[in-house]
Amino acid sequence: MPQPNPLAFRINFNGTPLIADPLDTESLYDAMARTIEKHAGSLVAEWGRCKKAGEHYRYPVLLTNGERGNVFIEGNA
């Protein structure tokens, strides 16, 4: 059984919990974007500014299909 990636972390995109699993060669933004793109079927066109939302951090995003959303960083997987 493969070992879980120690860099993996939980995100929530528009109410859907997802696991961002960064590769050794990519940034955390790239891992979040790849995870959202795989889930939504559309590329992340624009990242907004990070804001603290209670105990979590929130990023507003815009997808290339025009959908807007929020990404909450929830913690380690």
Structure report:
The structure is a single chain. The protein has one helix at 28-40; strands at residues 9-13, 16-20, 44-47, 51-53, 56-63, 68-76. The protein is 17% helix and 44% strand. The mean pLDDT is 91. With 77 residues, it is an alpha+beta fold. It is globular and about 35 Å long. Strands 1, 2, 3, 4, 5 and 6 form a six-stranded antiparallel sheet that branches. Strand 1 and strand 2 form a beta hairpin. The longest helix is centred in the middle third of the chain and has 13 residues, at 28-40.
User: H/E series, N to C?
Assistant: EEHEEEE
Helices, by number, come to 1
Number of strands: 6
Low-confidence stretches: none
Q: Mean pLDDT score, rounded?
A: 91
Helix-residue proportion? 10-25%
- Portion in beta strands: 35-45%
Largest sheet: 6 strands, antiparallel
Tell me, what's the shape?
globular
Straight-line N-to-C gap: 17 Å
Write a concise synopsis of the structure shown.
The protein has 77 residues and is of the alpha+beta class.
List the helices and strands and how they pair.
Elements: E1 9-13, E2 16-20, H1 28-40, E3 44-47, E4 51-53, E5 56-63, E6 68-76
